[in-house]
Fold this sequence. Notes:
alpha+beta; two-stranded antiparallel ribbon
Amino acid sequence: MAEIDYRTVPDGGVLRRLGSGLQIIRRVKHEWYKGLDALKGEALRRETDKIRGSKFLSDWTLSQYV
C-alpha cells in the first residue's frame, strides 16, 4: 500500500492484515504531528505520555510503521 493510501485509513482502521490473521490498526495518537516539533521538556513529555500515546520518530512515514 502506498503512503497516500495509508493516510486515508481512519483512526482505528486496519492498515494491513497479515497472513496469520494479525491486523495492524492505525492509531493517530501514536503518530508524530507538526505541533510537537516546537515542544520541549515537560510539555513534550506530557504530549507523549501513556494517556496521549507515545509518538514515533518525526521523520517516519506510515509506510515505515507498517
